[in-house]
Specification:
The chain has seven helices and twelve strands. With 277 residues, it is α+β, with helices and mostly antiparallel strands. The chain has two domains: 2-131, 3-Layer(aba) Sandwich (Aminopeptidase), CATH 3.40.630; 141-272, Aminopeptidase. A twelve-stranded mixed beta sheet has the order 1-2-3-4-5-12-6-11-10-9-8-7. It is elongated, with a radius of gyration of 20 Å. The protein binds coenzyme A. Residues 21-22, 25, 80-83, 88-94, 116, 120-123, 125-126, 129 line the site of coenzyme A.
């Protein structure tokens, strides 16, 4: 086995190894090259910090790393890891983790963070063995039916230019895939829906054309009046996506969970955000 940085590796090779490593994953991950590149770009992938594992000339393992900044400074972020099925349980993940840690440490970065699907027993066991510990649970919901809303609620939901994204304080620190840096990098750019009453901004939703709601916020004086629900309904109308997805809601966010329950959303997946040390 040979380990090497991914900085000079052709992207089609990385894409091919990624597809193979995720061929039996819990979720469909069969993205084409362009989709994988967009996902990695959005999450701040840094090829020079990432490690590949080669066996008999074939790329069989990937640790795709980036750097995220939180209140305490830079932190290594694991965008994804994967080992092709025939190369598993041979210590590749552990070897790649050690190499990535050295690369991060040489840049003064000791802390690392990642998310793992709570049902992914293999990855969970591997990350625990590497010293990662669960920090908080992140819940992912789907709304799969058309939301019924008051036709004349007293405010208007309308699409607005994304440059007007208000970036209000949120209930909790967003997970890295929902961090504002990640949302800024989204390609194509995310869309903005606003709820306004007599020119006052009551709330907003930031979302993709595929129906992923990345950020939803209502100003404190206007909460518990149905503004968030009508924003979600407006996003449904605007995107015509078969389902709305609200991902990585902090499990402590009672208001968010209450809203989604009242909208009949289905909790379809939970992840653990894990940190080391
Ligand atoms: C998770 C994954 C990357 C592990 O890669 P790997 O190279 O097989 O891992 P390692 O051989 O380095 O294993 C390190 C330790 O992790 C744990 N582990 C790994 N796979 C495991 C499994 N299937 N069941 C239980 N524990 C497991 C063990 O403690 C193992 O040490 P041991 O073999 O000495 O007992 C691999 O299973 C994979 O690619 N899965 C599909 C993609 C995926 O889920 N990626 C993670 C996304 S967050």
């Amino acid at each position: 086995m040979r380990l090497h940085s991914l900085s000079l590796i052709d992207f089609p090779l990385i894409h091919q190894a990624f597809r193979l490593a995720f061929s039996d994953y819990l979720l469909p991950m069969q993205m084409d090259e362009e989709q994988l590149a967009a996902m990695l770009h959005r999450r701040g992938w840094r090829p020079e910090l990432s490690i590949g594992a080669w066996r008999d000339g074939a790329l069989v393992g990937l640790w795709l790393a980036g750097v995220h900044c939180d209140e305490a400074g830079p932190i290594g972020y694991c965008v994804a890891t994967g080992v092709t099925p025939d190369a598993r349980r041979q210590g590749l993940l552990q070897a790649m983790a050690a190499a990535v840690s050295r690369r991060l440490a040489s840049r003064g970065i000791q802390r690392q963070q990642l998310e793992v699907i709570s049902d992914n027993a293999a990855a969970m066991a591997a990350y625990l063995k590497l010293g990662f510990r669960p920090r908080r649970r992140l819940d992912c919901y789907r709304i799969e039916h058309a939301l019924a809303v008051d036709a004349a609620p007293g405010w208007r939901c309308e699409a607005a230019d994304r440059s007007q994204w208000p970036r209000w304080p949120l209930h909790s620190e967003p997970a890295v895939p929902n961090s504002r840096d990640s949302l800024e990098r989204a390609r194509p750019p995310l869309l903005l829906m606003t709820a306004k009453q007599n020119g006052d901004l009551l709330g907003y939703a930031l979302y993709s054309a595929a129906g992923d709601v990345a950020e939803l916020a209502v100003a404190p004086p206007h909460r518990r009046r149905g503004v968030a629900r009508s924003l979600l309904a407006a996003v449904q109308r605007d995107t015509a996506a078969p389902a709305l997805a609200i991902s990585n809601l902090d499990a402590d966010d009672d208001a968010g969970a209450g809203l989604l329950r009242s909208c009949g959303a289905r909790l379809w997946l939970s992840q653990w955000e894990m940190r080391r040390p």
